[in-house]
Amino acid sequence: KMDDDDDDIPQLSSHTLAALQEFYLEQQQREGMKTSQGLNQYSIGSIEEDWQLSQFWYSDETASCLAKEAVVAAGEGGRIACVSAPSVYQKLKELDGKDFSVCIFEYDRRFSVYGEEFIFYDYNQPLDLPENLLPHSFDIVIADPPYLSEECLQKTAETIKYLTKGKILLCTGAVMEEQAAKHLGVKMCKFIPKHLRNLANEFRCYVNYTSGLD
Description:
Pfam family, one: N6-adenineMlase
GO molecular function: nucleic acid binding; protein-lysine N-methyltransferase activity
CATH class: Alpha Beta
CATH topology: Rossmann fold
Number of helices: 6
Shape: globular
Helix content: 25-40%
Keywords: Cytoplasm, Methyltransferase, Transferase
Protein name: EFMT1 methyltransferase
CATH architecture: 3-Layer(aba) Sandwich
Low-confidence stretches: 31-39
Order of helices and strands: HHHEHEEEHEHEE
Strand order of the largest sheet: 3-2-1-4-5-7-6
GO cellular component, one term: cytoplasm
Strand content: 15-25%
């Protein structure tokens, strides 16, 4: 009987095993590189992407562009909310601006290393937010819903509308253009965001104000 059970255990092919070993080796090398480069806690990549959580970090150039846009849009002394957009949050912290503040709304608790600026966020519970977080208390909300589905966008939109005083910068797939307009009244920008790894889906930015992304 036990022999029969053993037959049911799926065996990894030698090709899959080799690919796995290569992946782990690359991961170890990346961790080593991080240490040798002396990455600070806000560097993009200081916290690894978790593909199971549909995490894909922006390229450094894209994160810089979005962060600078957010600072200008928020204005002096402005408050910025990064919803499921941790690489923009990290870039904002690297800018080390004294005339704006920022919070990161994120499901991945690894980002709790950022202390009081971290707010646990699950898009399935869009308004399950801390009681002391007042509605419409952010000058701009940057959001990157983790999944390309209308349900995910619709629920994230509830959060965005609760948080923002008005300005919205949404990053999502080009296929979501119609739904983005429907749920948030945003229009596609000319600026094309890039990721550290190329995504299969074309990615775009959307805003509901006159931005520097056109």
